[in-house]
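Section 5: illustrative case.
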């Protein structure tokens, strides 16, 4: 099985549309994502237009690159759909045409799962909406597509309510199995599975997080922090503008706290280029207030001029000491 690049496949010149979705297809955006997530309302195509695209896809049998669906690796087909500006029509076609049932059965399985939280007809509709309003970067789009696939296996009707406890962890394991089967490489698979695992971590922030909890969220996300924030921001498909605004405001607050704590930690981690023991041995003085003053001078020296090397630092220290 061919292994896929972790970005959108190249298209032949003149091929600008995705055959199954009908929308213009763009490559995944390059560069690192910002910490502040994006994602506005979904501009869904009318149902009639979506059906027209689906009929055209079935008639031509093409998804992208002027190649028949059967000749493309499943992951290439999926990637071509996902990096479209609005992948909604393409995703619905993959489900309605039977492609997903064959290559990505976890997706049509979501049609059976009623979602009392998002008030969609089913979790599949919510998943398509979240994917469509997430930034068109392949890693984020894949995470959005897979973020709820653990719900069928975790659905419970205890206490009269429908719950999906630990569906993120279950979905993460399912992602690790499905993505290699589609042809994605190990690195991208691990990253997407990690995002799926962390996708529900933001829940409860509005009830108050300590600084330690914010640091843990940041540490657990690591280099995926920007993508995780983008996924969280996209995972709100409520028709209530106030609810959407509240989530975005809470996420903005979290991002600001992450930045503030990072600045505070960077300041706390700063050290002079030489330590107190070296200062005492060089100046021939005992512990006391003079050592503290010398270390403050050396710290400011490093902040303003960077690393100078021990010889130059000692030279500057001597000049400072004589001028006291």
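Designed sequence:
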């Amino acid at each position: 099985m061919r292994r896929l690049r972790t970005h959108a496949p190249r298209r032949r010149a003149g091929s600008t549309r995705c055959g199954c979705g009908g929308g213009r297809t763009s490559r995944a955006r390059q560069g690192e994502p910002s910490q502040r997530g994006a994602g506005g309302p979904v501009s869904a195509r009318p149902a009639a237009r979506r059906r027209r695209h689906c009929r055209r896809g079935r008639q031509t049998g093409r998804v992208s690159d002027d190649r028949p669906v059967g000749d493309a690796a499943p992951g290439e087909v999926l990637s071509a759909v996902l990096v479209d500006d609005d992948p909604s029509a393409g995703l619905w076609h993959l489900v309605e045409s039977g492609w997903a049932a064959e290559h990505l059965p976890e997706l049509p399985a979501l049609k059976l799962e009623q979602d009392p939280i998002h008030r969609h007809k089913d979790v599949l509709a919510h998943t398509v909406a979240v994917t469509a309003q997430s930034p068109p970067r392949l890693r984020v789009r894949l995470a959005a597509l897979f973020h709820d696939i653990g719900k069928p296996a975790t659905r419970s009707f205890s206490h009269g309510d429908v719950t999906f406890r630990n569906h993120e962890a279950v979905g993460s394991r399912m992602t690790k199995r499905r993505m290699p089967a589609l042809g994605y490489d190990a690195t991208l698979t691990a990253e997407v599975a990690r995002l799926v695992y962390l996708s529900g971590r933001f829940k409860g922030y509005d009830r108050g997080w300590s600084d330690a909890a914010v640091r843990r969220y940041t540490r657990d996300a690591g280099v995926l922090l920007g993508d995780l924030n983008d996924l969280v921001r996209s995972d709100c498909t409520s028709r209530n503008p106030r609810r959407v605004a509240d989530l975005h405001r809470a996420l903005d607050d979290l991002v600001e706290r992450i930045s503030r704590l990072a600045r505070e930690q960077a300041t706390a981690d700063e050290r002079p280029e030489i330590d107190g023991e070296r200062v005492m041995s060089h100046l021939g003085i005992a512990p006391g207030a003079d050592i503290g003053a010398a270390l403050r001078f050396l710290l400011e020296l490093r902040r303003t001029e960077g690393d100078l090397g021990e010889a130059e630092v000692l030279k500057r220290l001597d000049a400072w000491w004589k001028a006291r």
